Amino acid sequence: xxxxxxxxxxxxxxxxxxxxxxxxxxxxxxxxxxxxxxxxxxxxxxxxxxxxxxxxxxxxxxxxxxxxxxxxxxxxxxxxxxxxxxxxxxxxxxxxxxxxxxxxxxxxxxxxxxxxxxxxxxxxxxxxxxxxxxxxxxxxxxxxxxxxxxxxxxxxxxxxxxxxxxxxxxxxxxxxxxxxxxxxxxxxxxxxxxxxxxxxxxxxxxxxxxxxxxxxxxxxxxxxxxxxxxxxxxxxxxxxxxxxxxxxxxxxxxxxxxxxxxxxxxxxxxxxxxxxxxxxxxxxxxxxxxxxxxxxxxxxxxxxxxxxxxxxxxxxxxxxxxxxxxxxxxxxxxxxxxxxxxxxxxxxxxxxxxxxxxxxxxxxxxxxxxxxxxxxxxxxxxxxxxxxxxxxxxxxxxxxxxxxxxxxxxxxxxxxxxxxxxxxxxxxxxxxxxxxxxxxxxxxxxxxxxxxxxxxxxxxxxxxxxxxxxxxxxxxxxxxxxxxxxxxxxxxxxxxxxxxxxxxxxxxxxxxxxxxxxxxxxxxxxxxxxxxxxxxxxxxxxxxxxxxxxxxxxxxxxxxxxxxxxxxxxxxxxxxxxxxxxxxxxxxxxxxxxxxxxxxxxxxxxxxxxxxxxxxxxxxxxxxxxxxxxxxxxxxxxxxxxxxxxxxxxxxxxxxxxxxxxxxxxxxxxxxxxxxxxxxxxxxxxxxxxxxxxxxxxxxxxxxxxxxxxxxxxxxxxxxxxxxxxxxxxxxxxxxxxxxxxxxxxxxxxxxxxxxxxxxxxxxxxxxxxxxxxxxxxxxxxxxxxxxxxxxxxxxxxxxxxxxxxxxxxxxxxxxxxxxxxxx
Length: 824
Prior knowledge:
Helix content is 19%, strand content 33%. The protein has 824 residues and is α+β, with helices and mostly antiparallel strands. The strands form 11 sheets. Strands 1, 2, 3, 4, 5, 6 and 42 form a 7-stranded mixed beta sheet that branches. Strands 30, 34, 37, 39, 40 and 41 form a 6-stranded antiparallel beta sheet that branches. Strands 7-8-9-10 form a 4-stranded antiparallel beta sheet, with helices on one face. Strand 9 and strand 10 form a beta hairpin.
């Protein structure tokens, strides 16, 4: 279920925003003005108010930063203030000026005719409410543009919509849906006009607890009565002696083809409709949106805490495709009718409505991991509704879209992806798999499993609590939010809202299992280990990779069978700094020169982040001093694919690079490495293959998603855990071929695809100190043993210091999240 615009190309929504920073503080703040003053003083920025939201725990203020006295329309800095008037967190957007940022034109005006030509809306229906000069953040810098506040459409269904038009009047920079900045109260008219009807809730398979119902289904044949539930449509609008599907929280409309007028219903029930009929699908849309909003109100989101100030408009048959969508530009929902009509599955309706919730809470949800977060939360919200059902709790509770996704050859998403792992080197858009992990499931899994744990301990009350926590944690954030930032916000809010329950601990454990907690410490080997037995020492470098000072840092090694390490106190490690610490090492078994061992440490610390005081850190310890034979190849331009103006690909761009190894007799083994340094506007367009002199090949990159345009990594790595074992036992000498195939014409002509350099390397020698023999019975001194050298036959090479592992790690370009606290 994608969150897409109904009228404009998707590409306009795909604005990449640099990762923001999340900081924890303790500061007295009691008003919007004080919040703005605090952020302005702290971040040395001027602001324009954007939105204010009220949650259970506090109030959340968001402000657009000003550049040259004009607002940046798609960025906000936000301050979270508790009900006790203590600011406890702020979120700082990253403004990227870039090469494209230029001053605003000195003489520039925008006419209504120019607006019409760019936004492609009929002039007769168009009203420009306001035009504001400002900026739009793009990957290449701040672009000058007008934010045009437009209203259009029929009188009773007019849409308010922001269009950002470039200052040079040549193009549309972006769009934003209008969301009211703040409203103290909402007025909902409850007519009392109710009628009962037979519908699906949550879906036929779940109600019948049938694993095979979808395979037995016959088109146009009515499902057994057990598939239906008797429900009540509440507070409908009376039209003479009939009832319209318009109420305080939802309006069913027909605003997109196929045209299906919204039916009026009899005022007496129970109603029975054919499951494929328009009136059945329209009733499903009304009932489930109305129920979802009433559920939010039952959770306490009412009055000034209300989520949504106006009824949601939904078209139950808004597309002939098997695709439903929420338009965050127009604040409307459409449901597809391809395959099985999406309105037959409550999961789909609740999922799409959940997108409107995240957009209301954070209207600036672009960039970073916001796409996957939005999808994951939507699955969580829909799954929680099904889990409250008696059958839904028992029958396939972790399966999403259990009816709709069974048709059309699709696989339902899961709410329990036990193998999902977060990789902080990537951003996670909606519906994208990163190294085998679907980002949507990566976020939904830990929060849904935490909800199930809460239900085990506290029943329905526990489920309500966790839903409140998950919702509250999303307030006060902005563009570029990442999963580990939101994970931290979630466990922090859980601890603040429910200090006497273990929700925070359960969430922390679930997030940790999927690598979703921010990393504070990196531990790496700092000096060579030369001894193979007896007593020695391991010197490690402890690096604080956060931007908060760490105090009382301790390292506790996890026991292993090969050697023992003593724990150590590292004392204090300032943000960004490193400290070396020596750990006494006692070999339990004689080691082999060149052997490597995986170590794990329990790292304890105190920091500004209130809910994180420990983490696990892993490193590889190598025995001996390594010498590597490295051969560097030249780069060049990466050829782009060719295509037609209509988007069809006519030919791939194939670029081939060669590297000759002439002065080496090494045989390749597990220490063989490949380094790639290149730039490309979209790594999903390319594949990269390495071929050895004997003709063996390995795909180093296979059209994978990567959030950046510059790639500079040694492989294998966390970015691409490629298996190079096919080259083992092969000779290093000979001609190596690197082939890069571009399969789609680039849409970004500003970035030149280029291979800057590449290299291959193989360790040739490890040098160690031989084991010291037992002392002889006589006092005569023994000769000093000769060094023990394990050599992989070679005639060339240079020294390799294990410290370079740390340097390589820094080169990886981790998107290090920033978490700080100041006590003021």
